[in-house]
Give the backbone structure.
Amino acid sequence: MKTPRARRLLRHAPLAVVLMVAALGAVMLGDALSFDTLRDNRAALLAFRDANFAGLVLIFVGTYVGIVAFSLPGAAVASVTGGFLFGLALGTVFNVLSATIGAAAIFLVARWGPGRALSARMDASEGRLQRLREGLREHEISMLFLLRLVPAVPFFVANLLPALVGVRFWNFLWTTALGIVPGAIVFTWIGVGLGEVFARGESPDLSLVREPYILGPILGLCALAALPILVKLLRGGKEV
């Protein structure tokens, strides 16, 4: 029979593996998943797509899920690649599907490990921590959308933080799938014209995502997601 300490170690092991792979990936992969790699292999990728479309979809989705689940470098490159290989519509679908599955995987790993214990402690706590927990529950959907929409929040933070504070998995899943759509469309759109960019000997300009006509609507969605919280605060509601 496993001791309580052994059970705790077993619960924390998957997240420890994820963090270890993420650290190793950041050091060892480096620029392996880069636009230069994509440019050098674009002919082979397009030929494989034309010969085995379903197989390439499975490889692409599986690779993207792994990148997100293990917080590996190259998520932006993968999103742009989705547009390059599959076009705007299908590329966006595959990008959103892959990122959502990867986010769900790391959420469940974190929830099964330290997230369960931390959430239980927050539920049993009193004072300011209890009010914070109640505020998170009351505004759970708005907070989850904000995490996805605010450009300054790293994707892996938006995956781990909800798991650690006891967010409901279903709410996490559907807000992730919807919340990442605006950014996915932008990166996929960049990828659609990637062939012409490579033909000119140039590299994709990801600074496009900071242009006012792109960033403005996303910030507008952020404001919309934050509106219920602001209304509650202005009416003198509970402290969040």
User: Anything to note?
Assistant: The chain has a mean pLDDT of 78. The longest helix spans residues 75-124. The radius of gyration is 20 Å. Residues 44 and 225 are 42 Å apart (CA to CA).
